């Protein structure tokens, strides 16, 4: 890469004699392998590595790897490997500094050593791939049309409308969460996730979550540990004429921009203050972070993550009409949510004491019957009758009225009645006169909540009127549990992106705790309900207090000491 002697390597790393002592073994190994020239080193690497991007080239594979793969973010212009040499020397120097001084040891899990890929960047990559795919498809169609002997005039707008490549690609990626971009060799899963609405803390955690891109199967604690660190900065300068001694000169700080070493500065704090002044005056992005890394003697800088047009900022007035309507697919509501008796500062900061998501239970820690093995719990039936652990499950059911050609579409029919006004089908008792259920109606298993009818034939002659015989019943039937009644909470009529009538029904079901339901404390001590016992058979204290649930003490050894101690503190009974 432009360096031909071991002396240049040592000088590029630094002038400290200790660096030469640490590099002596590597230099000695080169002499043992009889590598004395640059050509011999490249030939040695050619014999050891393979590169699919080299094709049929046998000699020079290692140089292609150094150019395309090794430190790929540093560009090589006109065969100039000097920037890569400098970047490699800085990497090697930091590694040697970590050996000589453990205080300079760097952490790869430190947030400042990572980059955040925001939604705008991910969507822009996906859009670029889909846009180029659409262009390729359009070029192929135009070439085929021009090759025909008697080709009709090509309407480019119709060509684009027939293949909604961009729309379908964006909808598929956002709905499934799979980002498959072959052009950039990106294959990721779980990029977009369904927002959890189980509690305020769960929703807040989902909206502020940063997902690391590391292998989940690796049993390493570093990526899973908490990193409360700051990150990212910005700067520019030229680096074409610098030597190794100038790079590591005392009092000089490296200027880095998006991982590229662009130059050095002798007054880093003044340089950083000037950059902050530019940021405050609006000359550079307001989210650019400037950081002076005195520990490594350099300024590490990154690009502005929020570019113009990717994210739209809304003020307070615009927030009122930004969300038109929302219907969660599945929503759980605790009936008797309580404020925790024991709170912390964090709970008060996030508002958990004002919007609780749990209940204060009287817990007895003892062994009772054989249904509380390890982490199983025994519930008090009278407590359940009084509403302990009761919740409301709200589920969304969507029915869409499809549109066909020539103005033919599905229709919503009224419930069928005989001459005396009695319903012909009893499973239509929940329907209103407009053909779908009304809010507040009780709905049971196998009841119809939308009486939809579809045409038997969709390719009729234009202008032909359809009669009742031309439709067949395609009702939306509710599937619940026999013996349980549910209530229609809300009904919304709207249209989707294709201007089709959409009916969304929110059905409410009050659930009572049963055997097999899972309960948990705030420390993650979870357990299933093993059995439900009458209060007359429950133990009680000398004051006559009967617990809401009983937990077996044999379940405590399954968790760590800290969680066990915390669980005892949270449940003094």
TrEMBL record:
Reactions mediated catalytically: RNA(n) + a ribonucleoside 5'-triphosphate = RNA(n+1) + diphosphate
Gene Ontology molecular function terms on file: DNA binding; DNA-directed RNA polymerase activity; metal ion binding; ribonucleoside binding
Keywords tagged on the record: DNA-directed RNA polymerase, Metal-binding, Nucleotidyltransferase, Transcription, Transferase
Pfam families noted in UniProt: RNA_pol_Rpb2_2, RNA_pol_Rpb2_4, RNA_pol_Rpb2_5, RNA_pol_Rpb2_6
GO BP terms: DNA-templated transcription
Enzyme Commission number: 2.7.7.6
Domain DNA-directed RNA polymerase subunit 2 hybrid-binding stretches: 325-557
Enzyme class, first EC level, given as a word: transferase
Span of domain RNA polymerase Rpb2: 1-117, 255-300, 302-323
Gene Ontology CC annotation, any one: DNA-directed RNA polymerase complex
Family label: Belongs to the RNA polymerase beta chain family.
Role description: DNA-dependent RNA polymerase catalyzes the transcription of DNA into RNA using the four ribonucleoside triphosphates as substrates.
Protein known as: DNA-directed RNA polymerase subunit beta
Species of provenance: Aegilops tauschii subsp. strangulata (Goatgrass)
């Amino acid at each position: 890469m432009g360096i031909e002697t071991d002396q240049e390597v040592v000088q590029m790393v630094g002038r400290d004699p200790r660096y030469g002592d640490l590099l002596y073994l590597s230099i000695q190994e080169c002499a043992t392998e009889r590598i004395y020239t640059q050509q011999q080193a490249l030939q040695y690497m050619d014999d050891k590595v393979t590169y699919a991007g080299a094709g049929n080239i046998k000699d020079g594979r290692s140089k292609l790897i150094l150019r395309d793969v090794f430190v790929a973010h540093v560009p090589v212009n006109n065969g100039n490997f000097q920037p890569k040499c400098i970047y490699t020397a800085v990497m090697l120097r930091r590694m040697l500094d970590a050996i000589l001084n453990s205080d300079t040891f760097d952490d790869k899990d430190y947030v400042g050593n990572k980059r955040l890929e925001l939604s705008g960047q991910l969507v822009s990559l996906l859009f670029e791939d889909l846009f180029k795919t659409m262009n390729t498809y359009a070029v192929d169609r135009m070439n085929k049309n021009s090759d025909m002997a008697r080709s009709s005039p090509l309407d480019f707008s119709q060509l684009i409308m027939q293949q909604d490549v961009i729309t379908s690609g964006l909808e598929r990626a956002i709905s499934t969460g799979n980002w498959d971009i072959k052009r950039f060799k990106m294959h990721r899963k779980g990029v977009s996730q369904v927002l959890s609405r189980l509690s305020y803390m769960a929703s807040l955690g989902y909206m502020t979550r940063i997902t690391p891109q590391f292998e989940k199967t690796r049993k390493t604690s570093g990526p899973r540990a908490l990193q409360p660190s700051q990150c990212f900065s910005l700067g520019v300068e030229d680096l074409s004429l610098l030597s190794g001694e100038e790079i590591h000169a005392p009092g000089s700080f490296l200027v880095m921009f998006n991982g590229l070493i662009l130059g050095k500065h002798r007054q880093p704090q003044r340089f950083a203050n000037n950059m902050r002044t530019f940021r405050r005056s609006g000359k550079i992005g307001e989210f650019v972070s400037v950081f002076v890394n005195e520990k490594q003697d350099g300024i590490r800088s990154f690009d502005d993550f929020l570019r113009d047009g990717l994210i739209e900022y809304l003020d307070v007035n615009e927030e009122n009409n930004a969300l038109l309507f929302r219907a969660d697919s599945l929503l759980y509501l605790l009936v008797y949510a309580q404020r925790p008796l024991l709170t912390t500062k964090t709970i008060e900061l996030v508002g958990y004491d004002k919007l609780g998501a749990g209940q204060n239970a009287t817990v007895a820690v003892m062994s009772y019957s054989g249904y509380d093995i390890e982490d199983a719990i025994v519930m008090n039936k009278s407590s359940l009758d009084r509403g302990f652990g009761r919740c409301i499950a709200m589920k969304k059911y969507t029915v869409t009225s499809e549109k066909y050609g020539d103005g033919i579409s599905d229709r919503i029919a009224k419930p069928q009645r005989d001459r005396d006004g009695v319903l012909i089908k009893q499973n239509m008792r929940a329907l209103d006169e407009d053909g779908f259920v009304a809010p507040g109606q009780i709905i049971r298993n196998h009841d119809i909540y939308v009486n939809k009818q579809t045409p038997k034939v969709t390719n009729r002659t234009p202008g032909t009127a359809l009669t009742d015989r031309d439709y067949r019943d395609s009702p939306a039937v509710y599937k619940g549990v026999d013996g349980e009644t549910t209530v229609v909470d809300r009904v919304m009529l709207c249209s989707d992106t294709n201007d089709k009538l959409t009916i969304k029904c929110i059905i409410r079901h009050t659930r009572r705790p049963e055997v097999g339901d899972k309960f948990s404390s705030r420390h993650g001590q979870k357990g299933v309900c093993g059995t439900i016992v009458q209060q007359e058979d429950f133990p009680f204290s000398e004051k006559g207090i009967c617990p809401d649930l009983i937990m077996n003490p044999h379940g405590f050894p399954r968790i760590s000491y800290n969680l066990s101690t915390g669980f005892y503190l949270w449940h003094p009974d």
